[in-house]
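tool_call: predict_structure(chain=1)
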Amino acid sequence: QVQLVESGGGLVQAGGSLRLSCAASGRTFSSNTMGWFRQTPGQERKFVSRIRWSDGSTYYADTVKGRFTISKDNTKNTVYLQMNSLKPEDTAVYYCAAGVADAYHYWGQGTQVTVSS
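tool_result:
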């Protein structure tokens, strides 16, 4: 099992920034990828970004490319999502996930991000 705990969500004005953190514990060696997803009420959970533990390669959804940056600290088993130039449409519950390749098996509890206009 892998346990994931997100933090860093909150309320911010449009154009502002937030940094989300996801601390992983447990059998972290069983996953090689960490991802961020987001979900709004009545919508499916959507992919935001992912990073590989091994080489740090990253991938972003087009909607956040150029504004969000995913990074990792292997020594702390922690992944971050730096969110800049936030827009009201970025408002969502953000979830951290762990998995192999692009199959995610473990999920955090989510953290609310609200961007006011």
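agent: The mean pLDDT is 96. Proceeding to next step.
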